[in-house]
């Protein structure tokens, strides 16, 4: 999670009105397979960038992220769908997203799909 927090800092000052978010994909062997951060509002979210960086190594891995993954459409698609499609086995998030469009729904979406 410390690395995810460091990743989040890379977007500070450029993501408004969105929060800074970082993510790290870690394989079952404990190897960092992908890293990502939200660079700018309207761009890919941290989770999507980390999954892209990890590629096929995301299957069966754990995704550490600083904020609950989004589950709604806005300027980008839902991160939760991408997480499930990538085959991530587990998600560890530092905090639940206070945005009323998410607020626990991202976690529920993932749990209902076995993540």
Main sheet makeup: 4 strands, mixed
H-E order:
HEEHEHEH
Query: Going across the major beta sheet, what is the strand order?
Result: 2-1-3-4
Q: What structural category characterises the helix and strand content?
A: alpha+beta
Please state roughly what percent of the residues sit in beta strands, choosing from under 5%, 5-15%, 15-25%, 25-35%, 35-45% or over 45%.
15-25%
Low-confidence stretches: none
> Mean pLDDT across all residues, rounded?
93
Instruction: Give the N-to-C terminal Cα separation.
Output: 18 Å
What is the percent of helical residues? 25-40%
Oligomeric grouping of the chains: single chain
What coarse outline follows from CA principal-axis ratios?
globular
Got a strand count? 4
Rg is: 13 Å
The number of helical segments is 4
Draw up the topology in text:
Elements: H1 2-9, E1 22-26, E2 32-37, H2 46-54, E3 62-65, H3 79-86, E4 90-93, H4 105-112
Parallel strand pairs: 3-4
Antiparallel strand pairs: 1-2, 1-3
Helix pairs in contact: 3-4
Write up this protein:
29% of the residues lie in helices and 17% in strands. It is built from four helices and four strands, in the order αββαβαβα. A four-stranded mixed beta sheet has the order 2-1-3-4. A hairpin with a 5-residue loop joins strand 1 and strand 2 (32-37). The mean pLDDT is 93.
